[in-house]
Amino acid sequence: MRTTVGIIGAGPAGLLLARLLHNAGIDAVVLESRDRSYVERRQRAGILEQGTADVLRAAGAGERMDREGLRHDGIELRFDRRRHRVDFPALTGGRSVTVYAQTEVCKDLIALQLRDGGPLLFEAEALAVEDAGTDAPRIRFRREGREDVLECAYVVGCDGFWGVARKAIPAGLAQVFERTYPFGWLGILADVPPSHDELVYARHDRGFALLSMRSPAVSRLYLQVPDGTDPGTWSDKEIWDELERRFETDDDWRLERGPITQKSVTPMRSYVHEPMRHGRLFLAGDAAHIVPPTGAKGLNLAVGDVVTFARALTHQQETGSPELLDAYSATCLRRVWQAERFSYDMTALLHRAPAATAFEDRLQLARLERIASSRAAETDLAEAYTGFPFG
Fold first, then answer.
1. Are 139 and 164 in contact (CB under 8 A)?
2. Are strands 289-290 and 70-72 parallel, antiparallel or unpaired?
3. CA atoms of 95 and 73, how far apart (whole Å)
């Protein structure tokens, strides 16, 4: 097989890239190791920045998002039994975010790709990227028990942290920056309407809690727990009781309970691989960087990467200039590091470290007081949360 762009991975990044390239008249083939049903059920992020939502609309993938997604114009911070709302449009010139699950983004993009895009091959396991440093890279893959080769002009690895794309960059050329955290998130899905109409980020002496949602009828909630926690050790009642403690306020707000349909624990880490390009191989999304979920940046960073690549390749095809492709890694990393900073800051602001001192607790409260009382501090949070510019 032969194509201009070989894309490894049919998550939202790979699927959106295929759509952007199709709209630009550039052919591409997407290889995905899992079957379609798995991809469309894979639970991940659910917050779309303003820029991400705009890109999906421009790509022709925004109709259902606009109909079923939930526009949010702010978040609520809770600390010391108090509530403070951050008003995004008032602080950012009108920007907002949209609650729309990654599974739904993937369903929309898969339907478009199968309807009028290039080949999207499910159950096609990428085994290796070969000759990445040359003008003729290849993806060796296995499908239906047989090995095959996809010959490309460019390869984009959207295959996540454990994928094969990053392994094709020589170790001597790479730098890795990472941080692991001594806690994770115990997350639940519950069949109960959300207890608040916007996300609630709660700092509590017992640990962080987050109130989110997947739809008007389904709540998504999280508790900070020690790293390595087995979700099965928490009963449903214990989870609801702990959420109630951490969201407590001095007014009459109440947490609504309902049947829990899913429990899982998400580890927390920060990770950046530099560079994000080697020859004709380009990394995007979790293949190159991971952020703790506190700032809702993972999916949105991946979208920024593929938008940058699509623009750069289109520019090269139209002008003959490789300038933007050559700048791909540096361009993406500027945005990546701002998102890493914001995600780290939000994590440090709201989570209680296992060995935290009374001094550190007071600093957290002072920082939250600053956000609640200073328009400048509040604006910095709102601008970062609603999204850094692409490219």
1. no
2. unpaired
3. 8
Q: Give the Cα separation of 374 and 391 in Å (integer).
A: 29
Spatial distance between the Cα atoms of 274 and 174, rounded to a whole number of angstroms:
6
* Tokens coding 159: 């295959």
Q: Which residues contact 125 (CB under 8 A, 6 or more apart)?
A: 31, 33, 141, 142, 143
Structure tokens at 273: 């691989």
CB 6 within 8 A of CB 124: no
How confident is the model at residue 96, as a pLDDT?
A: 98
Provide Rg for the chain, Cα atoms.
Answer: 21
Q: Per the structure block, which two tokens stand in for 205? A: 């002496």
The residues assigned a catalytic role are 72, 201, 293, 297, 385
Query: 265 near 223, Cβ under 8 Å?
Result: no
**Nearest by Cα to 338 from 300, 281, 284:** 300
- Determine which helix (DSSP H) or strand (DSSP E) holds 138, and give its type and residue range: strand 138-143
Q: Which long-range contacts (CB under 8 A, 24 or more apart) does 66-69 make?
A: 68/100, 68/104, 68/215, 69/98, 69/99, 69/100, 69/104
Q: Three-state DSSP class for 141?
A: strand
Task: Quickly list DSSP for 283-324.
Answer: E-GGGTEE--GGG--HHHHHHHHHHHHHHHHHHHHHH---HH
Contacts of 16 (CB under 8 A, 6+ apart): 55, 56, 59, 61, 105, 109, 303, 306, 307
pLDDT averaged per 10 residues in sequence order, the chain, 391 residues: 97 97 98 95 86 97 96 97 98 97 95 95 98 97 97 98 96 96 97 97 98 93 97 97 97 96 95 98 98 94 98 97 98 97 97 96 98 98 94 66
Residue 363's nearest CA partner among 211, 203, 138, 227 is 203
Closest by CA to 271, choosing from 135, 149, 166, is: 166
DSSP notation for 169-188:
S-GGG-EEEEEEEEEEEEEE
Residue (of 45, 44, 47) closest to 75 by Cα position: 47
How far apart are the C-alpha atoms of 227 and 229, rounded to whole Å? Answer: 6
Phi-psi domain of 29 (left: phi exceeds 0; alpha: psi -120 through 50; beta: other)? beta
Instruction: Write the burial class of residue 303 (CB in 10 Å: 0-12 exposed, 13-18 middle, 19+ buried).
Output: buried
